[in-house]
C-alpha cells in the first residue's frame, strides 16, 4: 500500500472519530433543549453534562488532526472552517440551559476548604444559618476533573519539513515525561518512525541508554535548519500556478504559502532576504562548483555575498590555470572569433543517442528497459518480477518516481501499468487462425537511408549504409567504417554541436570520400566528412510491418533494407544534399511514408504506423469456435459440429471468406438476385449453406442498400428538418391580410326545395388567416376560374383585400383533379387571377401539400363539422350556406391555446377576438343603460381590448408554435447531379420515372426542400420528399 493510500485512510478515520464526537455533543444539546419543557429528561442531562467538557476537548484534538491530514493531502478545501464555532456554540448553550434547569448544588465547607482560591474566603459566607453547607456551583465543577482523550503520537517518515513538528510533539508527549522510562520511550520512538528514520535507529539494542543514543542520532541526521530552509524555498519557487481564480485554487495557494512561511519564520534566519537570493543563485551553479562551495562554507545560513565571492575566486583560479578557453564544463565557453575567421562551429542535426546516457536494468545495455529484447522475450510474470526487483515505475518502467505519480497508462487497457506488463484476457494458442486488428499508436518517423558505394584506400568501392539528412551542416562517417575503408583522417579541431547546441564528443578528424550510386559509376561526388565514433542508433528503431515493403515493391529503392534496424555508417548532410536529390516525389497512402527520388534510388521519408509487438499490442479475435481447417486443395473451411448430419460436404464445411474480399460481395449479390431480392434474414441463410462469411450481416445490408430494385421498393426519401415559421405567422397583422386558400368537397346540394329537384355538386372555398388562424368559408358551385373569381370577390368585399395569397399548385384538391390542375396550373387562368386581384400570389411546388399545412388542417376541420351536421341529408343552397356560416362561427370560436386552469380566467383567446372582440358563438353581453361614457372613452376602451388580445396572442399563442412536432432531425442536403427516382402516388414504385437534379432551392436556413429535376419529359419542380436518391457506388 502506498503512502497516499495510507494518508487517505488515516484521514477517513480521523473524520469518523470527529463526527462521532460531534454527534454526542449534539445529543447532549438536544437533551438540554428538551429539559426546558420536559422535567423527565433533566436527570439524564445531569449525568450527560459531566462528559461535555471531555467531549469538547476530544473535538478540538480530532478536528486539529483532520486539519493536519487534509493539509498533507492538499485537500484543505474540504475542511469546514465554521464547524468549530458551531460546536462551541452548542456546548455553551447546553451548559447555560443545564444551569437554568437544575437547582444550585450544595458543597460542604470541608470540600470548599480543599480548593485553592485566588483570595481569602470571607468568613461571613459560613454563617451559623448555613452551618456546614454553602452554595458554590463553580467549586463543584472544579472538584470534578475533566477526562480528556488520549493524544495520538506523531509519526515521522524522513521528510525534513515534518521534522520540527515531530520533534516538538514527541518531546512534549514522551521525551520530557519523567514518568516514562527510557526503555518505554525507545519503544514509543520505534513505533513513530517509518522508512529511512527507522533504518537510522534499527541497529540500537533495547537498553536504558538506547533512547538517548537513538534520539541523538535522529537529531544529528534530521535536525538541520539550513536543509529545511532550502527545501521550503524550493517548494515555494516550484509552487504551481493557479489556472483560474476559484475557491479551491486560492485555498491551495494560501495553504502552501501560509504553512511554509510560518516554518521559515520559526527558523529565525538572521538575514532571510540574503538567504533567499543565495538560494536562487546557488541553483544556477554547476554541481561541482556547488559541492566545492559547500565544503568551504561554514555558515549556518549562507548569504548571496558569500556565493558571489566564491564564484569570483573560482573564476580567478580557472584563469590562472589556463582554462579560460578550454574549460571542462558540459557547455564550454568559446572566445568570439573575428568576422573573417573560417573556423566556425559546425552543427549536425542528427538524432544522435550517445549524449543521452541510458542503461538497461536487465542487460546493462545503452537502451531503455522497454526496448530491451531480453525483457520483451521474458514472460509477463518475469517482467513483473524484474520491475519489482529494481523498484521501477510500473507504468513507464523508469526510476525516480512512484507509480501513482506517473501520468501515463497502459496503451491497451488504459489501466495503471505498462503495455509490456499487460495480461491478455484471451489465452493465446501457438498458431490459431485469427484476424489481427492493430491498435492506434504514435507513428514512427522514418528517416531517409541509402546504400552507397564509397571508394577505399586501394581504389575499390565498398557498400556503406548512409543517412541522408538535409538539416545537418556537415557530413560524417563512423570511425569503424573509416578503418574498414583503410582511410586515415586528417587532424581537425573545429567543435561539432548537435541538437540543443550540445557538443558532439570524440571528433577524430576529417577524411575525403568519393561517393557514387551502387547501380552506376556516375556521378561521383567528393565530400569532406568528419570522423565520429558513432552517428546515430540503428535505423529504424524497430522493424517495420511487411505492408510498407509491399507498397513499394515496384520501386528501385535506395536502401532495400530500409525496414530492418541496421547501423548507419555515413551521414550525408546539406553540403552535398542538392547533388543527390531530385525533384520527384510520391505518396504511398495514409499511414505510410512518402518516397523521394535521388541518384541512389527512391528514398522513403515520413511517418509510418508500426505495430512492433503484435502479441502484446493487438486485439486477437479468435476463430477457434469455428474449428477452421485446410482441405485438400488449400481452401480454408469451417470445421463446425455437423459432421454426423446428412448434409453435403460443402454444407457441412462451408468455405471461410472474409467480408472485405470482393469474392464475398459477388457471392452476396448473386444470392440476392437468385432469391428475388430477398430480405437480409433469408439471404444470410441461403449464403451460409455454402459459404461462411465473417461479419456477413453488415455485408448483406450494404449490398441491399446499393440494389436499385430494393431502393425503389423501400422508397426511402430524405426528409428535411421542419422549416422556421415565416414572418407573417409570428408578426402582428390585420386579420386576413395574408391568407391561404384551399378547396374542400365535393358535397351534394339540391337546386330547389322540391321533392324531385336535381342534386348537384357543391364545393367549399376555405380562406385561412395565416396570422390569427381565422377561417372564412364560401360555397362554390363550379370548379371554374369564373366561379372562383366570384368567390374571391365575395371574400374581399367582406374581409378586405389581402396583401398575399398562398395556395397549392398540384393535384391535392379532393375530387375533380383534372379541373383543379387546369384552374391553378394553366397559364391563362393564372393571368386572369393575377389581373383581377391586385396582390401577390404564391404557389407551393407541385406535390407538396405539407407546405400548406395550416389550410389543410382547416379543410379537415370544416369537412368534419359539415359531415356531422349534414349526416345523410341533402340541403338547398340557402340551407347549405346557413350551415356553412354556423361552421365558420364554430371554427372561429375555437381556443388558440389550451384552457387555463385559473378559475378567474373565464375566456380563452380565439380567432373571433380579432374579428369582433369576442368568440362568435358566445352569449351576447347585457345592454348597458348608463350612457354617460363618452364616445372617445369607449373607443379607447375598444382599442385597449384589441391590444390586450394581441398581447395574449404574443405571450400565449406564439409559445405553442415554438416546438417542432416532427421532422426534427437535420439531414444531408441533396446535391446537383444526384440521380433520383420521382415518386408518383398513383403508380407502382417500379414504374416511377428517373431523373437528375439540375438545380436546388435552399431556404433561409440553407436546407434544400425543393429541387428541379431533369426527366425525359422535361424539367419539373418537386419537393425533396418526393425524390428517392439512388446509390452511385457499384
Commentary on this structure:
Pfam families: DUF1759, DUF5641. It comes from Schizaphis graminum (Green bug aphid). 38% of the residues lie in helices and 16% in strands. It is extended. It starts with a helix and ends in a 5-residue tail after the last strand.
**Largest sheet: spatial strand order:** 6-7-12-8-11-10
Name the structural class: alpha+beta
Q: How confident overall, as mean pLDDT?
A: 72
The CATH topology annotation of the domain at 444-608 reads as: Cathepsin D, subunit A, domain 1
Task: Quickly name the level 1 CATH class of the domain at 444-608.
Answer: Mainly Beta
- DSSP strand content: 15-25%
- How many helical stretches? 34
User: How many beta-strand elements?
Assistant: 31
The largest β sheet comes out as: 6 strands, mixed, barrel
**C-alpha Rg (nearest Å):** 49 Å
CATH superfamily of the domain at 444-608: Acid Proteases
Per CATH, the architecture of the domain at 444-608 is Beta Barrel
Determine the N-to-C terminus distance: 62 Å
- Helix amount, in percent? 25-40%
Shape: extended
Quick tags:
about 1050 residues; alpha+beta; six-stranded mixed beta barrel; six-stranded mixed sheet; about 15% strand; extended
